[in-house]
Amino acid sequence: MDPMEAALLRALIDGVLADWAWHLDHGDYAAVAELFTEDALFVTGAAELRGRPAIENRYTERERVRTTRHTYSGLRVSVAEEDYDSGSVAAPATVRAQSTWVSYAVNGTAPADSGPVDDVGVYLVADFHDVLTWCADERYRISERRIIGVFRDPSRAPVSG
To answer: Which of 2, 33, 48, 132 is the most exposed place for a label (fewest CB within 10 A)?
Structure first.
């Protein structure tokens, strides 16, 4: 893959990951689910979810009691040689992406007009192992996501209700 193609591919994948964080952090869980394929596999801790409805439900269960902000770095993108044809205008069918994420969280609603929450901390530092699939609507969607926790503050874990 030439450097320009690699840069474009990286930008496309970065866009999907950035959209996931933005929609999640701003409570648009339907938009989060749309970033996944219909039959996507989502694994985090002991939870193994399959499909958009299950992924969306994971977040709507805690909608009223959680405020988060996610950041990430270290994005690494790779394409299997059999999935890449440099003569094709089509994107590679599947792409693997690895990144490290930091989740800042508080179990409560951030006050809209009174300023930032003073008691916030890192809930989780995790490695994300993603597989993204080029879809018929000419965009990448996450077909598999595995979140592997590295550091965690259990006192900041999500609560239901």
So the answer is: 2
At which residue do the structure tokens 């000419």 appear?
138
| pLDDT (tens digit per residue) in 142-154 | 999 999 999 999 9
pLDDT tens digits along 30-39: 999 999 999 9
Q: Is 95 part of a structural domain of the chain?
A: yes
Q: Where are the alpha helices (H) located in 1-83, listed in sequence order?
A: 3-25, 29-34, 52-60
- Residues of the chain by 3-state class (helix, strand, coil), percent to 5: 30, 40, 30
Domain membership of residue 57 as a residue range: 3-156
Contact (CB, 8 A) for 158 and 68: no
Q: What is the residue whose two structure tokens read 């609560």?
A: 159
Look up residue 2 and give its two tokens.
């030439």
What's the pLDDT score for residue 64? 61
What's the domain count of the chain? 1
